[in-house]
Specification:
alpha/beta, 33% helix, methyltransferase, Rossmann fold, 7-stranded mixed beta sheet, Methyltransferase domain-containing protein
């Protein structure tokens, strides 16, 4: 199965912090204050679920969360998290195969789109775009690299990342597909943009128009 992190699920957070220190964590937690109380949230590719506990620190109750993860092992770890009084529905599915019958106030995708080829990026984006309510928020964070302005070490680090994850987790992508054009085409507003790890990580709070 493509993009399945089962083999490294127990070690994923440790590996992330060894390479990126707390940059990936901070890129996500800095956005959480934008989540409205009593909102419905779709989290896709949530990994080990630590983000659920961070969300619960801000909103210990009142949230209805759909938590989607392709890795069964990641999902198992996520179910052990303390979500306080929030309601969490755990869904074992690939983002591209997800059937969504409701709409959400908030969509969260953290380091998800870097797994996909260009065609899959468009497919997944449209799926989540349709699932987000008008004026809803999309908390987006991912790696960022621009060939014209990016640093050489970022280019080499990307190559190493894709080499490693292709062999360990069968990641289908071989290059990073930047997603700004998809949000621009749908006229999303950027409420907050922040960069981390010398610009190699970008986090944006988008609002659907």
């Amino acid at each position: 199965m493509n993009n399945n992190y089962d083999p490294i699920a127990p070690y994923y957070d440790v590996l992330s912090r060894l390479v990126y220190f707390r940059a990936q964590l901070k890129a996500q937690t800095d956005q959480l204050s934008y989540i409205p109380a009593n909102s419905s949230i779709l989290i896709a590719g949530g990994g080990t679920g630590w983000i659920l506990e961070e969300i619960a620190r801000i909103h210990p109750s009142g949230l209805d969360i759909s938590y989607v993860e392709i890795s069964g092992e990641m999902l198992r770890l996520s179910k052990k998290r303390d979500v306080k009084e929030n309601t969490v529905t755990y869904i074992h599915a690939a983002a591209e195969d997800l059937e969504i019958s409701i709409t959400y106030d908030v969509v969260i995708t953290a380091f998800l789109f870097d797994n996909f080829s260009m065609d899959k990026v468009s497919l997944v984006f449209q799926k989540f775009h349709s699932a987000l309510k008008k004026e809803g928020l999309w908390l987006f964070s991912d790696f960022y690299y621009n060939e014209a302005t990016g640093r050489r070490w970022q280019k080499y680090l990307l190559r190493m990342m894709y080499f490693f994850f292709r062999h360990i987790s069968n990641v289908e992508a071989s290059a990073l597909i930047n997603t700004e054009q998809h949000f621009q085409e749908q006229s999303y507003r950027s409420l907050k943009t922040a960069s981390y790890y010398a610009g190699f990580i970008k986090a944006v709070v988008y609002q659907k128009s």
